[in-house]
Write a structure and sequence with these properties.
With about 775 residues, this protein is of the alpha+beta class. It has 26 helices and 25 strands. Helices cover about 40% and strands about 15% of the residues.
Length: about 775
């Protein structure tokens, strides 16, 4: 199971994956396959820390104020009180996973796996500490992944100003283009960190300035080179581009390519630092307004105009992300990405639907080193110990914005091992060790999920030997990058094994108008409310049959109500059989169960109607099973629905009434046996989709076994009488019943409903309408 965040509350995305995975698990279990569906939750570093920090703020406290140890204690207390909420809600969806194996990404076993993975990757030279451009969340004061940044088009302002060329800033002729380069930016505050101005070498307007220098506004006279670079689009903007390698990812790449200096002008909280000169201490937004006002006052401003810009925001906290050059821990991914890419190209790994393979390949082909460190307190603390010569040296390293780091460090699984390593490396027995304050990206531990939950790094663990590698990973297509690709890469990196052979991706659940559900739109549908109003089975069946793999589902309330009626129909079919068994003794009912088991073998001796319904059942079993094997769960559910509703409930049961109450005891008994056989097998077919009603009905009709969930899947390739099916269809073709066409809950299959009052009971018993 993809581990939901421990902070989470059940939403339709959870309902979708629980439904689909439960269908897979129940089907596999009924078919006699060793089946493990393992549940768990993710510690959700950023999300959980945000929740606890907000609780502290409500008390007038801060995490810095109470300290790390107290904050971690407070967070564990929160987890103990609220952490089980999401698991309890998932249980309400009927999840038949093995709750005795429930895991948490910060539990002891998974923490051991994280330590092993980090140490192993570092020892192989794949983890290193370096300085690079990252996405910085100033409020949280942590780096976040590229994949955890969401871009939104928001109204902003484009500012045009004069970037004076050295020697031309005092030119009084404003029409002289030699005096300045016109530059446009949405972030004038970053001008304080500029280290170049770029123009296209082919731009006739500006190419003569290449090689000269420009004066950085409000810098006290600092100059930067004017460079020529083909990256600059002559037709876009003014044609002159300010280059700020310290605060723009594209500029950072240009700076690395041409060897520009990188200047950081911001503190980690988003305020301006000493490199900003007179603007030191201002918030970045305040600084923007002040710089522009000063440009206007100094005659540098040309104009400003409204401009929609793509704003990067933290997926978790919603704050505006600041591109910032920072020292972080990174993991080299190329050596692990290569086998992960080959697995798809060779067909060893199948992604359903196939179109997502292109996206997967594209990401792995251009994979970058992964920034795995986060400046949080909730998570797996990085197992690095810095070596200091004395307590004084450590205190000095921790002063100011320091975090106790030093150039000398050891990587170990615990402090005792770290001290032994430090001693072995000749650092002396009296050195002071201090553990890295950063924690690992939450996705690092989640990337180990397929094997860490099974006992790895102990490869002799019983579950690891029995269930790894696994078979199917089902999840939303929106985390194909976040999680699936990383699991594949980490599995190759740690076990040299593909963790699963199939990835099944479901789409998003949208509202009935096709809009993404969001609190701002007020269109969020709470699955728990749906369960209360329509029943869990109706919700599950709607989610499973309403779309195909990878396709988004527009959740229609009318369809939910219709599927609630379907579950009532199943209940009523069970009641019909029980009414037909009234007056039978327990011994008679046991005998009837045995007689029902012989129905397939006695097919040839049954009347036409009974041969027809049994043959249709057996054909449906084969069709539904094939759909399951193709991971076409929507088709499997719709086919089982159509058989139950159209063939069995609407037609066979109606026709069977005449034989049950005709006074012919032998015919009645035979019909009861067929009804029991067909209903019981149909309940098995439908059970993975609607487990509650099928289990309840099954337990109330005569049966063998303790629970429907563990009954065997109906037999494949069972006997059929094709002549009986063809004969009944030919006979029905000669009739001219009043009919109307309706649409099933899946929205794809028409069914014919007839007015049985115009047709004799005898004819209905032996025929059915053409489909």
């Amino acid at each position: 199971m993809p581990p939901p965040n421990v902070t989470g509350a059940l939403h339709m995305g959870h309902a979708m994956f629980v439904t689909l995975q439960d269908i897979m698990a129940r089907n596999a279990r009924m078919r006699g396959r060793p089946t493990l569906w393992l549940p768990g939750t993710d510690h959700a570093g950023i999300a959980t820390q945000l929740v606890v920090e907000r609780a502290l703020e409500a008390e007038g406290k801060t995490r810095m104020g109470i300290g790390r140890d107290a904050f971690e204690k407070r967070t564990w207390e929160w987890k103990a009180e609220y952490g089980g909420r999401i698991a309890g809600q998932i249980r309400r969806l009927g999840a038949s996973c093995d709750w005795s194996r429930e895991r948490f990404t910060l539990d002891d076993g998974l923490s051991d796996a994280v330590l092993e993975a980090f140490v192993s990757l570092h020892d192989r030279g794949l983890i290193y500490k370096g300085t690079y451009m990252v996405n910085w969340a100033p409020k949280l004061q942590t780096a976040v992944s590229d994949l955890e940044v969401e871009y939104s088009d928001e109204p902003g302002t484009l500012y045009y100003f004069k970037y004076f060329v050295e020697g031309g800033e005092d030119d009084s002729d404003a029409e002289d283009p030699g005096a300045f380069l016109p530059v446009a930016t949405t972030r004038p505050e970053t001008v304080l960190g500029d280290t170049a101005v770029a123009v296209n070498p082919a731009d006739e307007r500006f190419k003569r300035f290449i090689g000269k220098r420009a004066i950085v506004p409000f810098s006290g006279g600092r100059t930067v080179p004017i460079i020529g670079d083909d990256y600059v689009d002559i037709e876009f903007g003014t044609g002159a581009l300010k280059i700020t390698p310290g605060h723009d990812p594209n500029d950072y790449e240009i700076g690395k390519r041409v060897g520009l200096e990188t200047i950081n002008i911001m503190n980690k909280d988003g305020s301006m630092n000493a490199n900003a000169g007179a603007y030191e201490g201002l918030d970045r937004a305040e600084c923007r307004e002040k710089v522009w006002a000063d440009m206007e006052a100094a005659g540098m401003a040309i104009k400003s105009e409204p401009y929609d810009t793509r704003v990067p925001r933290s997926q978790r906290g919603g704050e505006i992300i600041e591109p910032l050059v920072s020292e972080q821990w990174f993991c080299k991914m190329e050596s692990m990405a290569t086998p992960a890419l080959k697995a798809v190209e060779s067909g060893e790994l199948t992604i359903v639907p196939q179109r997502f393979e292109k996206i997967y390949k594209g990401w792995l082909t251009d994979v970058r080193d992964w920034c795995i460190s986060r400046q949080l307190w909730w998570g797996h603390r990085i197992p690095v110990w810095y070596v200091h010569e004395s307590e004084e040296a450590l205190e000095s390293a921790r002063s100011g914005s320091g975090k106790g780091a030093s150039k000398v460090y050891v990587v170990a699984r615990n402090e005792a091992d770290a001290r032994a390593k430090a001693t072995a490396e000749g650092h002396g027995a009296n050195v002071v060790l201090y553990q890295e304050e950063d924690v690992l990206d939450t996705w690092f531990s989640s990337g180990l999920w397929p094997f860490s939950t099974l006992g790895w790094p102990d490869e002799d663990a019983a579950d690891f030997k029995k269930f790894f590698p696994t078979q199917v990973m089902e999840t939303g297509h929106d985390i194909l990058f976040f999680w699936v690709a990383r699991m594949v890469m980490m599995s190759y990196g740690m076990t040299n094994t593909l963790p699963f052979h199939t990835v099944y991706l479901h789409g998003l659940v949208r509202d009935e108008k096709g809009r993404k559900m969001s609190k701002s739109l007020g269109n969020v549908v709470d699955p728990l409310n749906v369960i209360d109003e329509q029943g869990c089975d109706a919700l599950r069946f709607t989610l499973a049959t309403g779309t195909a793999a990878g396709q988004d589902l527009n959740l229609n309330m009318d369809r939910l109500a219709s599927n609630r009626n379907f579950t009532n129909k199943i209940w009523n079919a069970g009641k019909f059989l029980l009414y037909a068994l009234e007056g039978m003794s327990d011994d008679d009912r046991v005998a009837l169960v045995r007689e029902a088991e012989t129905v397939p073998n006695d097919l040839a001796s049954l009347p036409l109607a009974e041969r027809w319904i049994v043959s249709r059942l057996h054909a449906t079993v084969d069709h539904v099973t094939t759909a399951h094997d193709k991971h076409d769960f929507g088709e499997a559910g719709r086919a089982a629905y159509a058989f139950f509703y159209d063939d069995f409930a609407d037609w066979f049961i109606e026709g069977a009434k005449s034989r049950l109450y005709s006074g012919d005891a032998a015919a009645a008994r035979r019909t009861r046996a067929v009804i029991l056989y067909v209903l019981e097998r149909t309940l098995r077919l439908l059970h993975p989709f609607v487990p509650y009603v099928t289990e309840e009905v099954w337990r109330n009709i005569p049966h063998e076994g303790e629970t429907l969930m563990t009954r065997a899947w109906p037999t494949l390739d069972a006997a059929r009488d094709d002549d009986a099916v063809a004969g009944s269809e030919d006979a029905s073709a000669e009739e001219t019943p009043r009919a109307r066409t309706t649409t099933t809950d899946g929205g794809r299959r028409g069914r014919r409903e007839r007015d049985l009052g115009t047709t004799s009971a005898k004819k209905v018993a032996g025929t059915r309408p053409t489909r």
